[in-house]
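cache lookup: miss for this entity combination. No prior model stored, computing from scratch. Input as submitted by user K.M.:
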Amino acid sequence: MNTKSMIGFAVSLSLAMVAAPSQAGDASKDLDAKTAMIVKRDFRDKGIAKATRVEQDELQAACSKYVDNLPKKLKAKLEAKEAEAIKWPADGKFMGDWKAGEKLAQSGRGMTWSDKEGDPNGGNCYNCHQLSSSEIAYGTIGPSLLNFGKTRGNGEDIQRYAYARIYNAKAGNACANMPRFGHMGILTEAQMKDLVALLLDPESPVNK
Amino acid sequence: MNTNQICRAVMVLALSTSLTAVAEEKAVTDSDRIEQYREMISDGNPAEFDEMRGEELWKTPGGPKNVSLEKCDLGKGPGVVKGAYAEMPRYFKDTKMVQDLESRLLTCMTTLQGIPEEQITAKPFASEKKESDISSLATYVVGQSKGMKMKVSTKHPKEKEAYEIGKRIFNYRAGPYDFACSTCHATSGVRIRMQDLPNMRSSKKDAQAAYTSWPAYRVSQGLTRSFQWRLNDCFRQQRFPEPKFASEATIALTTYLAVSANGAEYVGPGLKR
């Protein structure tokens, strides 16, 4: 090898080293784009579940792209945005009827294509959380909420906290696995208050 | 009622009685119950009736062209059924696509037998009222891979691409609940109500056990269900719209899950709650 070809070799080697990561990045971007195209094309309306449901909002897109591991800055930005969009009860009250809340927590109905237009949505809470000691068929995707009010108290701050969590769990943790019940219009304000009462009322089975 | 139906009815009755009996005890998960059940009926799985039905459909001339499916190429040559499912999805030269078992059966039924595609895809899943030919055929084919090791290739660039896209769809969050497959299937040891959820993202063991036990006879429904059905029903629970039957999205997702199960013995058709 002469000097010239050695230099040429070194240059092309370093170029290759620089180029490699960006090539991988391009391939990944192409796959992202292709995935988006396929998802858009391959789903169709069924009952109340319209094909447009596959369109992602900013938060869903980010959590998918980063596989639920957002860069710090982006995470903070998205959480702030979600928090800002929380609509607080106009009357400033957070506690509803825990008995209605328990019924909602038990119901896993709602928003699938086998549910009917106008059917009331449930809260699905027991699908993911332990809530009372009497209900043993509870899921474990979310933390146990047994004795939630007993351990956290039931003052105004914790009422606001519980309401915010239910309204938009992503305001506290952008890629949390809990749905945004208020933000996405799954539950009404009155229903969310009933659930706050279920969590915090001393008479509720959660705290018994 | 023919003999098959009677046998099935009796078996379902026996199974569902035992299910409720066990259900009254305390915190047993559905997996525990299915285990008990499996022991009870160690000498049979009602899916066998569907396998038999599928075998007959495979071998009997049918469709406008009145030919059987015995020339159907599932990847190991025309007519080779043995071991075919353990290597699917795979790339097919004739269609220039990666295909899962059901999309490949669709190709064979339309091209060899001349059955119009819409006639098959309009109702691809069995119901209480009507059996599904394509599902029964699938049950037959998977039964011929029982005991074989899963060996799904990602060598062809299209196979690799399907795997990568499938992985992305697995993590694709959307809809009113922000759910993706990963919401329910990427954490170990969790459940929804009493149903254990396999972690198909990071537990090889879970991914293998989940994939290799489908298609399966579902006791709660009294029907044998295909893998396309399994995906369809999980998309329903995910609050997504309906995936088109045998679409590229479903094939990519199946490729991702099948490759994750590589190395495990295929044990289906399975038996589920």
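stored under new cache key. Chain A has two domains: 20-84, 98-207.
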